Amino acid sequence: MLDLYTWSTPNGRKASIMLEETGLPYRVTAVDISKGEQHDPEFRRISPNGKIPALVDHDAEGADGQPRRIFESGNILIYLAEKTGSLLPESGEARTEVLGWLFFQVGHLGPMVGQWHWFKDAAPVESDIAIKRYREESLRLLEVMNGRLGVTPYLGGSDYSIADVASYAWARTAVDELASEDAESVAGLKPLLDWLKRVGDRPAVQRGMEIPTDEQKQDAAQRAPLKGPAGGGSVLP
């Protein structure tokens, strides 16, 4: 059995989509990041950087003799792919290509779209230059994806893979945001838009995008706020 700790963000949905794709049994704990639950010392023992998603595999043993923890979303995707032998080629150029596009998402698409969202919707002081910079970089990254998807149906090549799982929710978020501001900015990205539909039509993707459910989030809402580093606690290993 696997325990998934997550929230309704693009990073969180990478893990839930992958779990749905693999068919592995798992339980969900919603970690309400708006309440700072990611800083809870118990959660930090699973995810040292206090980020969702995180996973605990009760069928595998960690170095401390406890169920194995798996943190960082890209690491979770690789772990689940190798555990099940799915959505990641075993070797060769095919594996290298999939991992290249996985790290494209981890190192570029996610951070840039995330910064654009934060400066646009959450920053306490508005910064036009930051919003412009991260919006333009987010669009550029979507154009990189569009170029790739113009010559191959999936990011890793001919087959659906963890590269697509990683990028779907982030690309969907960015495209929807750009389209709401200026539909013309994404209208020309036809291969990317076709890919979003192709991936979005997968039943496992649709199920994963609904995790955590409203009921799971309600459970989190009823918990008292948790203390951690942000509340005067200490960072745990």
Automatic annotation (TrEMBL):
Q: Give the transmembrane region(s).
A: none
Identify the residues that the record assigns to the GST C-terminal domain, covering every copy: 91-226
Pinpoint the GST N-terminal domain residues. 1-88
| Pfam families reported in the protein's UniProt record | GST_N_2 (PF13409)
Q: Quick one: where's region Disordered?
A: 206-237
Database matches in InterPro entries: Glutathione-S-Trfase_C-like, Glutathione-S-Trfase_C_sf, Glutathione_S-Trfase, Glutathione_S-Trfase_N, Thioredoxin-like_sf
Coiled-coil regions, chain positions: none
Going by the entry's taxonomy, the superkingdom of the source organism is recorded as Bacteria
Keywords (alphabetical) are: Transferase
MF-aspect GO terms: transferase activity
The name under which this protein is listed is Glutathione S-transferase family protein
Source organism per entry reads Marinobacter orientalis
